[in-house]
Amino acid sequence: MTTVQKYALIGGGLLLSLVAPFLMPQFATQLTMLWLMVVFALTWDTLGGQMGYNSFGNILFFGMGAYACAVLQRDLGLDYFAGLAVGLIFAAVLSSLVAIVLGFGMLGLRGHYFAIGTLGLGIAAGEIAGGWDYVGAGSGMVPPLYPTELAGRELFFYFLMFALALATFFVLRSLYATKFGLALNAIRDDEDKAEAMGLQTTQIKSFAWAVSAFFLGIGGGLAGNLLGFIDPRDVAFAGATFGVWMVLMAILGGKGTLWGPVIGAVVFHITQELFWTYLLGWQRVALGLLIVAIVVFFPNGIMGTLRERRPEWFGEKVEERV
């Protein structure tokens, strides 16, 4: 694929993303959730793909962002848009700080010990939120209502979530192109050797987790307002759905790549929506089979498979046999 073709494809995708909610207004909420899935997959891949630390606890920062934003909107007494802006900033900062604090303890674990440890974070957070009256306990929490008509509300959150996905993509792209990105890959390839070479691996891993938490916190704040209700176990700290899906989307697209999580999120979300539309009653069975198929048939993901079969698309030269 030439450079011109590549930029034409990206430009076409961006243009389609801008006009999609106007062409298909009945699917505006689903399209907004698509961008949230992209944020999920990209932020998970920072640890799981680029650094080799498979986390099941990233949902913690999403849920924390949802609650933090809604609580500030409720308690500050500002108008809706000012409260939302302050709430999103607070959600991002709080999530990043918690990631740094947790990182110095949790990121000392490696391999499946780290994965199991992070799994407990989301479960514990869901139980705490479910028993805490200040955030609605098990009854959940309702963020302040959007002040204008429904169509304007859907477009507003669509473009905010789209902007968040773009910001996540380009910030991570910039970071991966620096020494920080090389350090992440060095930790993934051989952490002991990276430490012996002088890398401060604990600080690097904690910073990477904080970057992921920053965008997840904003995503949580936006999602809470979009959905209009924050349930502690089924929305905010939904480890069995959102927490697992972010792993699957990165694997499906190709973990350890920049575009892989984006492609995986798009394919997974569209497939899931089709299951919910046409296989009502069997959608969870179909989703379970899809998860098995992803793990069995796409261990390297879509990008990995394409790289093997079409290396010339990635700028790799293939020598012809004489």
Give keywords.
single chain, 322 residues, 75% helix
In this structure, how is the largest beta sheet organized? none
Strand content bin = under 5%
Q: Name the structural class.
A: mainly alpha
Overall shape: globular
Ends distance? 24 Å
Compute the number of helices: 13
**Overall average pLDDT:** 89
**Radius of gyration, CA atoms, in whole angstroms:** 20 Å
Helix content: over 70%
The sequence of SSEs as H and E is HHHHHHHHHHHHH
What is the element layout, followed by pairings?
Blueprint lengths: L2 H21 L4 H21 L10 H18 L3 H27 L4 H20 L19 H27 L2 H18 L4 H27 L4 H5 L2 H15 L5 H20 L4 H15 L3 H9 L13
Give a verbal description of the structure.
This protein has helices at residues 3-23, 28-48, 59-76, 80-106, 111-130, 150-176, 179-196, 201-227, 232-236, 239-253, 259-278, 283-297, 301-309. The chain is 75% helix and 0% strand. It is mostly helical. It contains 13 helices and no strands.
Quick recap of the structure?
The chain is mainly alpha-helical and 322 residues long.
